[in-house]
């Protein structure tokens, strides 16, 4: 068996120890004679898996007791619709929401919200190809906006908010798909914090939504499809219908792995050290350039270019041959991107930098 260093933006690298444990349990989960893939989601065994996963996640993120945790299907995209459909149905809601546009995922979330509510863009970094985070200290947040929305880590462009926006008292909703569990977080600053798990947490097919209790509509929303409503899932502890049992099980294992790494503070230190290896080299290189304003750089997604598209293509080809996979930038921006999520070992980043140095010496 030989494993590559996988720099994919998602689905992405998972901790090897977790994959090994899952492999060991594949045919016979803890003596029950079947795989988790074959188990009823109504069984006590699965109930224990989901309960433990939620408890570990609450512990890791320090989720206050007035927040609910939902394990849902439909990915982050489903929440692009569910967020306005739920939050703008609360008693007294105006049906207005303000979005900060820092790239493709906030743009798509805004476009989806516009299908249902009066959603508008109040800041953007589109003028410089989303290579920075706009100043969010004094935004034109509407007096009666129901919420302010951000995509906190921009997977494609490699930017991250180092400071949360001043929402002027409005509820903050954040898509953290590509930075989930990568650093300590103060959940109480958010009304909703959510993401698809397939980047930093587990296998594709699951979104985790952490939502403050008072932001979940109480009643059945007659004009909103059941699967878009948070309340039925809250009442059923994420088991309103058959969930993605496998992904929940795998995420539970990743939560335990994160605890063994010193929790979110421990993994954050690891992520800082890894990113520094790559950014230090990018800053010193004559050939490669990072594309993001320094103060807004992501610890998770690192885009870079040579400035020559043919050379970029050669780099992607040769790096793949050297066992460094998925370094091609997103199809919308080109160049290269290294996603260095929690499970990427520092050795992987060191191997990438060694390869880049060698490539630079030759070209
Ligand atoms: C930040 C961010 N938000 C949302 C999405 C879309 O997620 P999903 O495919 O789970 O709908 C992605 C990437 O896939 C992403 O990187």
CATH class of the largest domain: Alpha Beta
How many domains is the backbone divided into?
2
- What is the β-strand count? 14
Q: List ligands, each type once.
A: pyridoxal-5'-phosphate
Strand order across the largest sheet: 2-10-9-8-5-3-4
Strand content: 15-25%
Largest sheet descriptor: 7 strands, mixed
Provide the helix percentage.
25-40%
**Which fold name is given in CATH as the topology of the largest domain?**
Aspartate Aminotransferase, domain 2
- The coarse overall form would be globular
Our Rg estimate from Cα atoms comes to 21 Å
- Average residue pLDDT: 97
CATH H level, superfamily name of the largest domain: Type I PLP-dependent aspartate aminotransferase-like (Major domain)
Number of helices: 9
Task: Measure the end-to-end span.
Answer: 33 Å
Order of helices and strands: EHHEHEHEEEEEEEHHHEEHEEH
Give the oligomeric state of the chains in this entry, treating copies of one chain as homo and distinct chains as hetero.
single chain
- Examine the secondary-structure arrangement and name the CATH architecture of the largest domain: 3-Layer(aba) Sandwich
What is the SS-derived class?
Answer: alpha/beta
Unreliable stretches (pLDDT < 50, length at least 5) are none
